[in-house]
């Protein structure tokens, strides 16, 4: 028990003792006691009244000057009040800072309920999506951002890949990228304006496509004259070797230009590949025959067809995939090696693999092989007539079929390039 309580109890006991003594001396102990208790009660009530008044107007009034237990209570309440004020000020300050910060953010941020109703958004999101505070709070986001791709993305939930949508605001075309992030009971939707990046990317693609296209005609003329010169017996024999070399280099340039054009074509369409039934077995048999006719090739090329089911896709693109893989296997496998081409179907889908016992690829190069012009050994690739674009084409064409490329290789032992197609691509 605190000292204030002991003092209060001692004081009350002393007062009761005095009242009893007074009663015994002057008679009517009961009256003396009642008078004392009434006085005591009045005193307590007045303290309680002052405390109550102060609690009601505590922001304007100073705390009452009360002694004893009441004084302790006033001090305690004062402390709790000051602590609460301090936390309130901090929360308000934090909230203001948070608002300033989110307003300065170049990205749009929206907080959604799990039912995709808008709880809050920052200024950037409001400007990007044309949302209005107050009116749009509580609305479902797909009712305000109307785009089929967005609706599909938002319905699929945070685990699906971020989506980009094209929006036209007046005459201006804009590209917005959306990403959904799960946040406890809510979801965070990030919006980024990627118009600039998209335009630059489109410009780069156009430039490559146009440059390749422009190079094609002059190259055809040069190659044509070189062919004529090579067949012309009147040409000084000293020029034979240089003309042959020029022909080889012109042919390499033609291959690079053709590959660049093919890559541009693949990149240009963002739609998925068609679903035409393709006889992959027949195509692979033909490719094997062509490979066997090559001057530089390994001794044995086997074809293992475990399924006669057709693949649904674009015939030219699938041919390009298989031809590039078989051609690489031939280029990077010595004469005494072997190549095995395989096509099989299982529950996961269709699989095409080209396995060789060639020079293999050091592990650190594998992740970068599908980059344009990436070669493990530049000299060797050039000598074998490679453009350095083959695997980039394979990757792009596969992506358009919803497939993926897997590369396994051991340096000095050989490599396996596998194309995995989803089940919906198998007839
Ligand atoms: P390239 O025209 O040079 O063949 P690709 O894009 O087809 O271009 O291949 C990129 C590089 O990957 C090649 O230069 C080569 O270093 C490596 N590569 C591709 N296929 C094989 C393979 N079957 N065996 C060993 N290395 C390979």
Q: What's the average pLDDT?
A: 90
User: What small molecules accompany the polymer chains?
Assistant: adenosine-5'-diphosphate
**Fold-level CATH name of the largest domain:** Heat Shock Protein 90
- Indicate the multimeric state: single chain
Main sheet properties = 5 strands, antiparallel
Overall strand count: 12
Per CATH, the architecture of the largest domain is 2-Layer Sandwich
- Helical amount: 40-55%
Shape field: elongated
Terminal residue distance: 87 Å
Annotated CATH homologous superfamily of the largest domain = Histidine kinase-like ATPase, C-terminal domain
Using only C-alpha atoms, the radius of gyration works out to 42 Å
Sheet with the most strands: spatial strand order:
2-1-5-4-3
Q: Which parts are unreliable, with pLDDT below 50 for 5 consecutive residues or more?
A: none
């Amino acid at each position: 028990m605190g000292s204030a309580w002991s003092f209060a109890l001692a004081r009350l006991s002393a007062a009761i003792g005095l009242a009893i003594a007074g009663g015994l001396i002057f008679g009517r102990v009961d009256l003396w006691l009642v008078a004392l208790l009434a006085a005591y009660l009045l005193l307590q009530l007045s303290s309680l009244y002052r405390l109550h008044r102060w609690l009601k107007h505590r922001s304007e009034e100073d705390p009452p000057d009360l002694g004893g237990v009441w004084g302790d209570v006033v001090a305690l309440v004062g402390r709790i009040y000051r602590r609460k004020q301090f936390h309130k000020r901090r929360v308000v300050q934090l909230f203001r800072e948070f608002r300033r910060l989110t307003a300065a953010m170049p990205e749009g941020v929206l907080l959604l309920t799990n039912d995709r109703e808008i709880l809050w958004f920052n200024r950037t999101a409001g400007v990007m999506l044309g949302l209005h505070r107050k009116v749009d709070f509580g609305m479902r986001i797909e009712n305000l951002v109307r785009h089929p791709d967005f609706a599909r993305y938002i319905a699929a939930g945070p685990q699906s890949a971020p989506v980009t949508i094209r929006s036209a605001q007046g005459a201006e075309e804009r590209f917005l990228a959306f990403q959904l992030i799960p946040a406890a009971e809510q979801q965070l939707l990030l919006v980024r304006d990627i118009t600039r990046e998209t335009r630059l990317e489109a410009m780069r693609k156009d430039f490559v496509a146009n440059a390749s296209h422009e190079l094609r005609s002059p190259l055809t003329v040069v190659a044509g004259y070189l062919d004529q010169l090579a067949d012309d017996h009147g040409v000084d024999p000293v020029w034979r070797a240089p003309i042959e070399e020029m022909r080889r280099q012109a042919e390499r340039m033609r291959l690079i230009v053709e590959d660049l054009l093919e890559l541009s074509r693949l990149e240009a369409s963002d739609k998925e590949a068609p679903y035409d039934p393709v006889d992959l077995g027949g195509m692979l048999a033909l490719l094997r025959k062509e490979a066997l006719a090559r001057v530089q090739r390994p001794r044995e090329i086997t074809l293992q067809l475990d399924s006669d089911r057709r693949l649904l896709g674009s015939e030219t693109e699938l041919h390009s995939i298989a031809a590039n893989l078989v051609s690489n296997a031939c280029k990077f496998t010595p004469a005494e090696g072997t190549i095995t081409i395989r096509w099989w179907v299982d529950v996961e889908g269709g699989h095409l693999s080209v396995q060789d016992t060639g020079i293999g690829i050091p592990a650190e190069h594998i992740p970068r092989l599908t980059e344009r012009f990436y070669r493990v050994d530049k000299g060797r690739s050039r000598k074998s007539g490679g453009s350095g674009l083959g695997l980039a084409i394979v990757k792009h064409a596969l992506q358009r079929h919803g497939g993926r490329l897997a590369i396994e290789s051991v340096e000095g032992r050989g490599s396996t390039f596998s194309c995995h197609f989803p089940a919906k691509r198998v007839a």
